[in-house]
Amino acid sequence: MFNPSTEIAAFLIHWSPNNSEAAQLGLAVVDKAIAHLMESDKMDSHECKNFQQLLKVLEKHDDDRLFNDIKGKKYTTRLDTTHSR
Prior knowledge:
Elements: H1 5-15, H2 21-39, H3 45-58, H4 64-72
Helix pairs in contact: 1-2, 1-3
């Protein structure tokens, strides 16, 4: 669902001036993508790779407020975190 928009959003945030319209659009997409991620119980490998790239790009971003904003949000997940073998 968010393939490849999560990566595009990361680049919008990274390369756009802080608080610009493009950066705000990127943040809105990231917020929706993370909510989708946390509600999903399955994800294909391409979408998973997009989220990895999102983190790779944004961890180089020089504005710590971005991560504080994302970390401050409360997301719930439907993923089964139990490991059965």
